[in-house]
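call fold(seq) -> tokens
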Amino acid sequence: AAPGGRLAFSVLRSLAHHPVYATLAALLGEHAGAEAEAMMGSPFALGDAAAVRALVREAGLADAELRIVIGQERFPSVGALVEWEAASSPLAGPLGRLSGDRRAALVSALERELAPYLDDGGLAFHNETHVVTATA
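ret:
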């Protein structure tokens, strides 16, 4: 941003605030290995508000404001969530290497664990981010 300009960005809060993704990460670890579990956790790595505030201070941004924003995610099924992650992230590699039986076992385990998030429309859960606005 130009000096005096406004800047806004968002980062996901930690996995502690995303029980669906925490469950997915853990089960990926069991079914696809530690690499897949680490990949699933990586988008949540900057999820601590204090760490975000420290980065904002180090960048010299003024009038910074951090807000928690809670949105909703919805997928037609647990399998659709797995497919989305396989298609939209580095998880394509580890998930692509799973046999059909191993992938089905992963989806089945997720369906059991994520049952509280399933309704007649599929899988629904919240998504929390830190949204920061500041002056450069």
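The chain has six helices and four strands.
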